[in-house]
Specification:
alpha+beta; 4 helices; 8 strands; flat
Length: 179
Amino acid sequence: LILVIGCTKMPPKTEDVSDITITLSEFNSFSGQSQLTINGNGSVSYYWSGHENGSENYIIKTGDITKDELLALIEVFNKNDFFSLKEQYDCGGCVYVVAPPSFSISFKQGDFEKNVTDVGRYAPEGFYTLVAELEEIRDSLTSAEISPQDACSTLNEISVRTRHRFATINMSDCIINYG
């Protein structure tokens, strides 16, 4: 009889990072929701939706990171024991009047996928070290304004990857002006 306790499935160890997808998702009752996606080919996209001044708005940014930067990020995942974290951290049944901020990080490579979600800052500090690292990548994306029509098109076809784009738009403007 062999009993294995605490066995953690680790992602494949390989220098080929082309099939990696790392995602940081955030939800906040007051500021909206966002998603940062980093792909193994180096493309980075950021999408935010929320309410400002009584209307729904969106922000889209795209950019790139190098393979070395991606490998360094994977090392941060390893140093902070991401692959041994639980899937969900929360207060264990609390009833909230207003939902607290929540963060989810997912790491996919090939058939491997690890997702960790924290609602209300109950995850270990290593999780928030990763959040900060991913937010730093988000904040470093180069921004250049694009037309509302291009931004609306991107919202309708979120898979469109144009490098170094940024837009803040009102979704009702997309519907009214561009169908």
